[in-house]
TrEMBL record:
GO molecular-function terms, A-Z: methyltransferase activity
Pfam hit, one: Methyltransf_23
The keyword Oxidoreductase is assigned to this record: no
UniProt keyword list: Methyltransferase, Transferase
UniProt cross-references to InterPro entries, sorted A to Z: SAM-dependent_MTases_sf
Superkingdom: Bacteria
GO BP, one annotated term: methylation
UniProt-recorded name of the protein: Class I SAM-dependent methyltransferase
Organism encoding this protein: Hyunsoonleella flava
Length: 235
C-alpha cells in the first residue's frame, strides 16, 4: 500500500493551518466511473454525518474501538464526549492525523491483529468494505466477535448496491456466474498518483445476517438510510 489515502488526509489537515493545497481524492470501481471524494467529507462533524453514523455514535458505550478510523471524525467526537476510545487504521497517514488532532489512544494496526477487548466496535463508512470479499466475511466476523466483552456490540454500516447494476429499463445486467455483486475492485488516485487497487465489499443486510448467524452473532437492523444503506448491530 502506498498510503495515498493517508497522504491526502495529512495534506488536508495541514492545509487548514497553512497555505499548503490539498486536492480531492478521485475514486472509481470496476463497475462505476470516476467520482470525486471531497476531503472535507472525511473530516465531517457530527452535524454533517449521515443519520446512520449519528445513530451509531449515539449507541456507542463503554470501551470503544473505531476500526478504520480515517481522519478520526467518529473517534474524536466520542473522545470529546468522554468515552474511552481506541482508534486503529492500517494507514500511517491516518494515524498521524488522529494523533495530531489529539486522540489519546491510536495505533497503526490491521483489525485482524487487534487483541484487546471492547464493549463497542465501530466500523463506519461502509464498514463491511474492510472484509474485502464474501469468502472472508466469516473470518473477520469471528475475529470481531472474539474482541467483544460480555454484552458487547458491533455497529457496522453498508449498502445493498444492486441498484448499480440496474439499466434504464429497470432490468439488471448482473453476471450470475460472477462473484457476489457487492465485491468491487476499488481504485483511488490523489494528485495524479494511483494507489494499488484494493478489494472493497458492499454487503446487503440479508447476506450480512446469514453470515452473522453462521458464526453465532445476532444481527439486528438498527436503521435504514435514504439510499439502500443501513446500520446493523451485531451481538
Ligand atoms: C472508507 S475509509 C473510512 C474512514 C472513517 N471510518 C470514516 O468514516 O471517515 C476506510 C478506512 O479503513 C481503513 N482500513 C482498511 N482496511 C483495514 C483493516 N484491515 N484494519 C484497519 N483499518 C483498515 C482504511 O485505511 C481507511 O482509513
Amino acid at each position: 500500500m502506498k498510503d495515498i489515502f493517508g497522504k491526502a488526509l495529512l495534506d488536508y489537515y495541514n492545509s487548514i493551518f497553512s497555505d499548503y493545497e490539498a486536492e480531492d481524492i478521485v475514486t472509481w470501481t470496476n463497475i462505476s466511473d470516476k467520482d470525486v471524494l471531497p476531503l472535507p467529507y472525511l473530516f465531517r462533524s457530527y452535524k454533517e454525518m449521515p443519520k446512520l453514523e449519528q445513530k451509531a455514535l449515539q449507541l456507542a458505550k463503554g470501551k470503544v474501538l473505531d476500526v478504520g478510523c480515517g481522519s478520526g471524525c467518529h473517534s474524536m467526537y466520542l473522545q470529546n464526549k468522554g468515552l474511552n476510545i481506541k482508534a486503529i487504521d492500517i494507514s500511517k497517514g491516518a494515524i498521524e492525523v488522529v494523533n495530531q488532532r489529539g486522540m489519546k489512544y491510536a495505533e497503526v494496526l490491521d483489525i485482524l491483529d487487534e487483541t484487546e477487548t471492547f464493549d463497542t466496535i465501530l466500523l463506519l463508512m461502509n464498514g463491511t468494505g474492510i472484509f474485502q470479499e464474501l469468502k472472508q466475511v466469516s473470518k473477520y466476523l469471528k475475529h470481531l466477535k472474539s474482541l467483544l466483552n460480555p454484552n458487547g456490540q458491533i455497529l457496522i454500516d453498508s449498502s445493498d448496491i444492486k441498484y448499480m447494476y440496474e439499466d434504464e429499463d429497470g432490468g439488471f445486467w448482473m453476471d450470475t456466474n460472477a462473484n457476489y455483486y457487492g465485491e468491487l475492485d476499488y481504485f483511488i488516485s490523489y494528485k495524479g498518483e494511483k494507489e494499488i487497487p484494493i478489494k472493497w465489499l458492499y454487503l446487503d443486510f440479508e447476506t450480512l445476517k446469514l453470515a452473522c448467524e453462521s458464526v453465532g452473532l445476532q444481527c439486528e437492523l438498527v436503521l435504514e438510510g435514504e439510499h439502500f444503506d443501513y446500520l446493523a448491530r451485531l451481538r
